Amino acid sequence: MVRILVTDGMDKAAARRLRELGCELDEQLFEPAELAGRLKEYDAVIVRSATKVRKPAIDAALETGRLKLIIRGGVGTDNIDVEYAQGKGIEVRNTPNASSDAVAELAIAHLFALARHIHEANVTMREGRWEKKAYKGVELAGKTLGLIGLGRIGRCTAGKAQALGMNVIYYDIVGQTPAGEGYEYAGFDDLLARADFISLHVPKCDRPVITASEIAKMKNGVYIVNCARGGLIDDDDMLDALGSGKIAGAALDVYPEEPPKDERILSHPHISLTPHIGASTSEAQSRIGAEIVRIIAEKFGL
Prior knowledge:
Blueprint: E1 3-6, H1 12-20, E2 24-27, H2 32-38, E3 44-47, H3 55-61, E4 69-72, H4 82-87, E5 91-94, H5 100-115, H6 118-126, E6 144-148, H7 152-163, E7 167-171, E8 184-185, H8 188-194, E9 197-200, H9 212-216, E10 222-226, H10 235-244, E11 247-252, H11 263-266, E12 271-273, H12 282-300
Parallel strand pairs: 1-2, 1-3, 3-4, 4-5, 6-7, 6-9, 7-8, 9-10, 10-11, 11-12
Helix pairs in contact: 1-12, 2-3, 5-7
């Protein structure tokens, strides 16, 4: 029997299907130290973003040699020491296609929130304040959206933005790609200078993609959205630019530390915040679950 650890929850239909295939599922979250001690008992582990599978846990699993598969239910795998695991014969997989539309829709939702001050008005209305004159917004139609990264989620975002009447330009580290057909490729500095709205869609980086240097090249009153990975924007530089008005508004779904504790960000009126919910739709979770079932069935011949 294939024994599987599910640490961060998964779609109920997918869990039921795995049990129908004869798998034993253990659904519980372990602290890092305990995870290292328990991982050796399983053939596969399914994680999302909360659980980190690092070298100590992988080394512990190697004591029995039972663990053969680590699955990240989502896009990135930066919470897993991928190269180390694969070097030890443990396969690492993710589900990159399943949540693309969900994350793209959240990015678009944040564009609307920033453009029409929805995040601010929602707070002041609940405080009994009628500040109609304070919330003169802008329309998305006719504005230029600059996408940094044109992978799966970037492409989904581009299509939705274009349908709203936005002019879409993009920069990708690999250069102009066939996936960008229908959208204008721009150099990085050119994108920064031309975009009214900027949305990030790149993997985790060793250093921020957006710092004071990049912000200085942007339009005055630009809006920035990050639904990709925490740490892509330098928080201090972003806050300075929000204070000066260089950045009119920012929207964040991801943070260098989760949950975030920086009160400057949590309380800032010009920052729209969500708690890392990019893939948190019923449809996305169902697709992620179905992909996980397929990967496990394929791996263990079920």
